Amino acid sequence: MMQTMPKLIFFDLDGTLAESKAPIGEEMAALLEELLRQARVCVVSGGALSQFEKQVVARLPEHANLGHLYLEPTSGAALYEWQNGLWHKVYEERLSPAQVTEIEGAMRIAGTETGLIDWADASHGERVENRGGQVSLSALGQKAPLALKREWDPDKAKRRALRDAIAKRLPAYAVHMGGLTTIDVNRAGVDKAYGIHQLCERLHVAEADALYVGDELEAGGNDEAAFRTGVNTRAVASPRETAAVIRELLAKG
Predict the structure, then answer these.
(1) Angle at Cα 160 formed by Cα 213 and Cα 154, nearest 5°?
(2) Across the chain, which distance is largest between two alpha carbons, in Å?
(3) Which of 72, 206, 247, 248 could serve as a FRET partner for 5 with CA atoms 20 to 30 Å apart?
(4) What is the pLDDT at residue 220?
(5) H, E, C per residue of the chain
(6) CA 173 – CA 90 distance, rounded (Å)
(7) Is the pTM of this model over 0.85?
(8) Phi and psi at residue 213, in whole multiples of 5°?
């Protein structure tokens, strides 16, 4: 942990600030509101902007300093900041329709080839979602219950197999594991490291003065890209541990 309050703090979302696709809890909302008084905060994760708004923004107290909050949906492929009462898009590395079609095709072939997805089976919502700057494959469907998602791939072996099978067909793209059942595909070079670089540069914050907090800061994890930057990192295993980290940070403020 850094000895002083970082100038900019990046948080992963699912598994770090909240359970998968669930809203942040009351305690987390209160801690983030207090943290936003003292530092700038960025949430960076694989979901779309609407997911960030539902999981995080809508849960914050009305007086939260949104001017200190930055959102990087689709794994850093887009950046939003609060201006004049609205979320303003700073950039979005959007995929073209042809790229989306290519990615979706590779995902469908990989799901069948690995035997991990039977496309004829019923799913909990759509399995493949175009999020603008990212296409995401959720093996059980976008709306699968948390308990089912946790049971599906506890050792990440299935996600690794899907990721590798997709990456083999998409050498010109960034293919990485996302949530508990998800594989995300972005343009080459666009990932959480890209998002970290972009925001640090925009805010004129040295990466050494920033901190990244995530629950998968490990080889192959969806926070691994943070290691390819100059930011400090702090691994957590749950939102409860993240809350403890925020309390530590606030004590330094």
Answers:
(1) 70
(2) 54
(3) 72
(4) 85
(5) CCCCCCCEEEECCECCCECCCCCCCHHHHHHHHHHHHHCEEEEECCCCHHHHHHHCHHHCCCCCCHHHEEEEHHHHCEEEEEECCEEEEEEECCCCHHHHHHHHHHHHHHHHHHCCCCCCCCCCCCCEEECCCCEEEECCCCCCCHHHHHHHCCCCHHHHHHHHHHHHHCCCEEEEECCCCEEEEEECCCCHHHHHHHHHHHHCCCHHHEEEEECCCCCCCCCHHHHHCCCEEEECCCHHHHHHHHHHHHHHC
(6) 22
(7) yes
(8) -120, 125
Strand partners, 129: 136
- Domains, the chain, ordered by start: 8-92+190-252 (3.40.50.1000), 97-187 (3.30.1240.20)
Say which residue the tokens 């490291």 belong to. 193
- Running along the chain, 253 residues long, what does each successive block of 10 average in pLDDT? 89 95 96 98 95 97 97 96 96 96 98 96 95 95 93 94 97 92 94 97 98 94 95 98 97 83
Res 178: pLDDT? 87
What pLDDT does residue 93 have?
95
Q: What is residue 1's predicted lDDT score, i.e. its pLDDT? A: 64
**Tokens representing 210?**
């920033």
Q: State the angle between helix axes of 26-38 and 239-252 in degrees (0 to 180), rounded to the nearest 10.
A: 30
Residues in Cβ contact with 6 at an 8 Å cutoff, skipping those fewer than 6 apart: 39, 209, 210, 211, 232, 249
